[in-house]
Amino acid sequence: MNLISRCFFRVLISSFGFAVMSAGANAGILEDDEARRAILDLRQKADASQIRFAEDIRKVNEDNAQLRRNVLELSNQLETLRSDLAKLRGQDEQLARDVAETQRKQKDLTQGVEDRFKRFEPGKVTVDGKEFVASPAEIRDFDAALATLRKGDFANAQNAFVEFDRRYPDSGYKAPALFWLGNAQYALRSYKEAIINFKAVLTFAPDHVRAPEAALSIANCQVELKDAKSARKTLEDLVKVYPQSEAASVAKDRLSKLK
After folding, report:
1. What are the beta bridge partners of residue 48?
2. What is the CATH number of domain 123-257?
3. I need a surface site. Which of 80, 81, 91, 259 has the fewest CB within 10 A?
4. At 3, which helix (H) or strand (E)?
5. What are the tens digits of pLDDT across the range 7-22?
6. What's the pTM?
7. Residue 248's CB: how many other CB atoms inside 10 A?
8. Alpha carbon separation from 111 to 8, 104, 108, 203 (Å, rounded)
């Protein structure tokens, strides 16, 4: 190979090497650009992800804050409900107390009205084994007259029983009132008047538990009046009519001693 050929070959080889080097350099430049673009893309994606993450965190924080507000509001509502419930319970308890108090007052009022009516309404009473209906006034007046007699105030007792018989002529107390009137008069030695009232007992209520005693009292009055004949007849009639009574036993003893 001559000098020209060698020079040409060297130039060719140099040109080829330069071309190869240029191509390699260009390829490196291309690869760097792609890498940068990839890095920029990754950075953009990372920034976008970070932005989305920050946005998500913000939304989560807002949701949490809203949730806390809701929980606080519910807690306040619950506390309000508890307070209202406590007030309602208190009102119910007060209402129950008011109802109980009203019922008690109504009961007392009703009882008071009934008591006042009872002062005027007739009621059943039992005296000397006899049950009958008497007005409150009858009961009061009879008990008062009998209490006067038992105190030994025979004059006032006589007046009380006379007034009772006048005021209540058809009273169930009539027989005992006449009997005790006769006893008051006997104590006052008003024997004739006493005999009249004891006989009234026998006429008005011959089956009354006080009838045998009334007959014996008549005989006693007759003895006091020195009327032995009438006294004997009365005692004999007593034994005949009321043979099983205690008064009959006393009458038999009196008859044996009566002259």
Report:
1. none
2. 1.25.40.10
3. 259
4. helix 3-118
5. 455 644 555 555 545 5
6. 0.57
7. 18
8. 149, 10, 5, 43
